[in-house]
Amino acid sequence: MTADPRLPQSSDAPGLRAAFSAPMADDIAKFVASVETDRHLLEADLRGSLAHVAMLEAVGVLTAEQATRLRHGLERIRAEGLDLDPAYEDVHMNVERRLEDLIGADARLLHTARSRNDQVALDLRLYVRDCEARLRLALAELTTALVDQAEAYADVVLPGYTHVQRAQPVSLAHVLLAYHAALTRDLERLRQPFISPLGAGALAGTAVPIDPRRTAQELGADGVFSNALDAVTDRDFAVNFVFAGALLAVHLSQLAETLILWCSQEFNFIHLPDELTTGSSLMPQKKNPDCLELVRGRAGQCIGELVNLLTTLKGLPVGYNRDLQETKPPVVRVGETVLASVNVCALAIRQMTVHREVMRQAASDEKLYATDLVERLVAQGVPFRTAYTIIGNLVRRGVPFSQVPADEWATLGLRVMPETFTPEQSIAGRTSHGGTSPARITDQIAAARAARREDLS
């Protein structure tokens, strides 16, 4: 195809330096380039451009023939892929450059009524929407694994802990469903509305007769921007995503920490298969839960990215500033890190072996039934603090409850037999809403299954 002699034949990105008399210095070009991160945005950029072409054709800015050529070129780039060249700064100009190679001068129509400012805002929003969808799918697998294991081990009892001290007997299902509840909140935070910024231009809109609502419809957006200046500046969606990812990473870290403790020799509550552990370079007997330790460790990276992102935004004047380029890497890094961590945790939950007898033995420590005895006294009309003091005095004596004489229990108004001190008996009494009794666990499992079915419908 013959080059148009009216067009500049510079090696610089098309049109970006038309008013400049010298090319950008190499060091500066490398410094401002964002292609390393932008490779993650290629698919989003092509999607946005295809929607933009459809809108421009619909409003009559492009002819059907021009729109068809642009679509064919963009689809070819999508099919072939594209290695981004730092000389063209970002994904947007790399796509335009490749498109011009493929279809010639018509490629220069693509940027009509569009700025890189609203384009990058759209690309990042599309990328965030895709990340949210991937994370929701992975979280669905993890939460389902938690419910499945809760149901499979509903009869397993172990000590519940506060301050990493044995507190009261609970079921294993109760613990697993606690993590399910936290991760369900994470799922909901990954459902923010998608608002299309395309059509905002650089900051003030455009004189070209466009239809941003049509573009938003093409993209499957939930709405369109209300103010062009805000549209190109807004990165709240990125902050929301990184915050949701960071908090999810914190929950995963807590789950990982629990599993790490449980598979230690000191607890020995669970065993992780060899496929999920690593060895020691010195001690051949070691099987280390390194993957879970890295889940725990990488939560700190995600928290740091949230601080990074908020700090980038806090000092910006209204309007697009190149600092906003630095909002892309935190989104990419958090999305990739948290997705990998979710998958690791799902594997660990699915493949752990539960040592039910070890757990039950630990839950059979009679001191764990102190609260049960307090509540029996309360049920007989004894004020709570009085009952608390009575049982506390028994604990201080250091005599196991099963060895307290029957006549001493009788003086307290209680008929207590040694066989009543079992973790199953303790759990059976916890019938309040959300409690650890078998009936309440059954309710929680049923509710989790129903919510999952509704989510799929």
TrEMBL record:
Protein name in UniProt: Argininosuccinate lyase
Subcellular location: Cytoplasm
A GO term, aspect molecular function: argininosuccinate lyase activity
Reactions that this protein is recorded to catalyse: 2-(N(omega)-L-arginino)succinate = fumarate + L-arginine
Protein's UniProt keywords contain Amino-acid biosynthesis: yes
Enzyme's top EC category: lyase
Position of the signal peptide: none
Taxonomic lineage from the root: Bacteria, Pseudomonadati, Acidobacteriota, Terriglobia, Terriglobales
Domain Argininosuccinate lyase C-terminal span(s) in chain numbering: 369-413
Keyword terms, alphabetized: Amino-acid biosynthesis, Arginine biosynthesis, Cytoplasm, Lyase
Annotated Fumarate lyase N-terminal domain residues: 29-304
Family: Belongs to the lyase 1 family. Argininosuccinate lyase subfamily.
Superkingdom of origin organism: Bacteria
Protein EC: 4.3.2.1
Listed pathway(s): Amino-acid biosynthesis; L-arginine biosynthesis; L-arginine from L-ornithine and carbamoyl phosphate: step 3/3
PROSITE patterns in alphabetical order: FUMARATE_LYASES
